[in-house]
TrEMBL record:
This is Cobalt ECF transporter T component CbiQ. Keywords: Cell membrane, Membrane, Transmembrane, Transmembrane helix. Pfam families: CbiQ. It comes from the Bacteria. It is found in: Cell membrane. The gene is cbiQ. The chain crosses the membrane at residues 48-69, 76-93, 113-132. It is a multi-pass membrane protein. Coiled coil: none annotated. The keyword Secreted does not apply.
Amino acid sequence: MGAGHAGGAATRLYVPGASPVHRLPPQCKLVAVLAFVLLVVATPRERVWAFGVYALLLAAVAITARIPLGTVVRRVVIEVPFVAFALLLPFVANGEKTTVLGVGLSESGLWGAWNILAKGTLGVIASILLAATTEPRLLLLGIERLRMPQLITQIATFMLRYGDVVAAELGRMKVARASRGFEARDLRATRVLAKSIGALFLRSYERGERVHLAMLSRGYDGRMPVTHDVGATAAQWTAASALPLAAALVTLSAWTIS
């Protein structure tokens, strides 16, 4: 699977580096992040200290990977919609009430909000670190090495490669409309925009047909050629397991220590 032109948005998430975390095979990092997130979710929400330890573990990974704090903070903004939902829970949830700064709030709602914010934020940060230390094309190769059906990984690969192509086509159509004096001011513009979306779909479909024919003419038989080996050694699996193993100890302590 060649490098090709990876999607610009996905590629921008990657922070180039040569740290030990960058060098780990993608399948090792995928399994480690998935195990870490599951352990975080399994932690009782009342064990506030445990989530602080999880945050320290992620901070250690970020330091090892040399990912700037500012980069992580800027990307965490993606969870703002979930934060807004969580902040509403104390006001709308039922159950016993408690007073905070003179405002009556639901205790179960406060715990629910904390549960969403703590676990959601830790999961988002873990995903950010994964994306920042692994190239998109290698992530897809790692997923394939984990026995994901090739059809799914191929679809994801083409989405990654041609997302920017479709976006550029949309931009050219926007310029063409503007050069003809079009400006979306009210609902009357909906008809023009709908036609533009239809035209974009047809152009994308035709481009896909041409790409498929070009692939067939070059010997495509349903499998993409692999030009980059992402095999993992026992030592690399052991290194990747450091995060979930440490998290497992925290989760076990959270359940056993009252």
